[in-house]
UniProtKB/TrEMBL annotation:
One protein family per Pfam: MurD-like_N
Domain of life the protein comes from: Bacteria
Reaction equation(s) it catalyzes: UDP-N-acetyl-alpha-D-muramoyl-L-alanine + D-glutamate + ATP = UDP-N-acetyl-alpha-D-muramoyl-L-alanyl-D-glutamate + ADP + phosphate + H(+)
Gene: murD
Lineage of source species: Bacteria, Pseudomonadati, Bacteroidota, Bacteroidia, Marinilabiliales
Every Mur ligase central domain range: 108-285
Record's keyword annotation contains Transmembrane helix: no
Source species of the chain: Paralabilibaculum antarcticum
Biological function: Cell wall formation. Catalyzes the addition of glutamate to the nucleotide precursor UDP-N-acetylmuramoyl-L-alanine (UMA).
Enzyme class: ligase
InterPro entries named among the record's database cross-references: Mur-like_cat_sf, Mur_ligase_C, Mur_ligase_C_dom_sf, Mur_ligase_cen, MurD
Annotated ranges, domain Mur ligase C-terminal: 309-422
Keyword Cytoplasm: yes
The name this protein goes by in its record: UDP-N-acetylmuramoylalanine--D-glutamate ligase
Positions that bind ATP: G110, S111, N112, G113, K114, T115, T116
Family: Belongs to the MurCDEF family.
């Protein structure tokens, strides 16, 4: 058994991994190059875990038998390169937690929609009375829950960064929603590296496991041709009906699994927009695989409340509807947001660009957007893409300024949409901070 485990990063996943490692008798050390938040420092002290912050002491880290790394630390970080040089295994918290649980693992990935689908499935499983935990990119650390709870099922949102550190972990149900360019800065700007990362969700699956995927996504379709998996393939589509497990027919959402046919009216879904039809189909198929009763699936898909910072209606001010879509950190998420709006839009966009191609949005912007507020330290790419294509395009260097300008540009019955298509780290702590500041400034109008 490996004796010394070092955890890099003392956020939710790192502290959770440390708690689990200690409960399994490992010698545990936690190291964070940044400052550890009071909440996690208190937990480290409560569990009597050794830790350091604002530095990585190499002799303490390079003496590890194995290292659990936070998904936010890139593989190119100097300490990671040194660990690899010494051939010390570096894994993710999810990989570590999976070793100590025989719960059913329902895992969701994709460039967009994974949080909504994860939360929707968790909502469905809870409603069905299953003993279920929520983990990964949302909810609490999987490792922490494995250490202290006795869940029989986990619904886990997996980012590509988490998948990169997973080797022996096995999903019982894997859902792949879509693959569009995202985080290419972490993948040497090579799309195939990012695609390979997403397809790691299939590794180790057996014939009794299920792979739920969107066949309308060309990248997924193409990649599956070269992919060997033992898992049962359960495709869904809104464009095709033949040989699908989930599809749309005459405005009805239909799912055929084994001998069972499930059907419900599309307009009864609680979440609107084409992207949410995909999320609902994926969740409905997983519900059928888990043999959840039809009425529970139908009820869950019709009463789910949605996710904070994802097309979240804030308030209407003088006839102008403000919508917080701060979670849209890439072009495709913003495409879905723009596509789902009926009224003219004043669009707040910008932040840390992850290799965005704004041309993908050009047609939608010309059709739906009346004004743009660029909210970022560097807005040159947004100007290059949209100058001359909309009536008004202005810059803002704070959320207060952005909301104020959008409010002045928007007319009654229009929408002010914060859907940045970029990461938030230039002006905000994270997308939640960005969304919360937006909501606060809107309420101050």
């Amino acid at each position: 058994m490996k004796n010394r485990i070092v955890i890099l990063g003392a956020g939710e996943s790192g502290v959770g991994a440390a708690v689990l490692a200690k409960s399994k008798g490992f010698d545990v050390f936690v190291s964070d190059l940044g400052e550890i938040s009071p909440k996690y420092k208190e937990a480290l002290n409560r569990y009597q875990l050794k830790f350091e912050e604002k530095k990585h002491t190499e002799e303490l880290i390079l003496s590890a038998d194995e290292v659990v790394k936070s998904p936010g630390i890139p593989d190119t970080a100097p300490i990671i390169l040194k660990l690899k040089e010494k051939k010390i295994a570096v894994i993710s918290e999810i990989e570590f937690a999976g070793r100590y649980s025989d719960a059913k693992m329902i895992c969701i990935t994709g460039s967009n929609g994974k949080t909504t689908t994860t939360m929707l499935l968790h909502h469905m499983l809870k409603k069905a009375g299953l003993n279920v935990g929520l983990a990964g990119n949302v909810g609490e650390s999987l490792a922490w829950q494995v250490a202290e709870q006795n869940y029989t099922h986990y619904v886990i949102e997996l980012s590509s960064f988490q998948l990169d550190g997973m080797y022996d972990f096995r999903a019982n149900i894997a859902i792949l929603l879509n693959i569009t360019p995202d985080h290419l800065d972490r993948y040497d700007y090579k799309m195939e590296n990012y695609i390979n990362s997403k397809f790691r969700i299939l590794q180790n699956m057996k014939s009794e496991d299920s792979f739920v995927f969107c066949t309308d996504d060309e990248i997924i379709r193409t990649e599956l041709l070269n992919c060997d998996t033992l898992a049962q393939l359960l495709p869904f589509s809104v464009q095709e009906e033949k040989e699908m497990c989930g599809w749309i027919e005459n405005e009805l959402l239909k799912i055929q699994y084994n001998e069972n046919l499930f059907s419900m009216d599309k307009k009864d879904l609680s979440l609107h927009g084409i992207h949410n039809v995909y999320n609902s189909l994926a969740s409905g198929i997983a519900g059928n695989v888990l043999q959840i009763r039809k009425e529970v699936i139908r009820e869950s898909l019709s009463d789910f409340q949605g996710v904070d910072h994802r097309l979240e209606k804030v308030v209407r001010v003088r006839g102008i509807q403000f919508i917080n879509d701060s979670k849209a950190t890439n072009i495709n998420a913003t495409w879905y947001a723009l596509e789902s709006m009926e009224e003219p839009i004043v669009w707040i966009v910008g932040g840390v660009d992850k290799g965005n191609d704004y041309a993908i949005l050009a047609d939608l912007v010309c059709e739906k957007v009346s004004g743009i507020v660029c909210l970022g330290v560097d807005n040159s790419k947004i100007h290059a893409a949209f100058d001359g294509k909309v009536n008004t395009i202005v810059d803002a260097s704070s959320m207060k300024e952005a909301v104020s300008q959008a409010y002045q540009i928007a007319k009654k019955e229009e929408i002010v949409l914060l859907s940045p298509a970029c990461a938030s780290f230039d002006l905000f702590k994270n997308y939640e901070d960005r969304g919360n500041q937006f909501k606060e400034e809107v309420r101050n109008l």
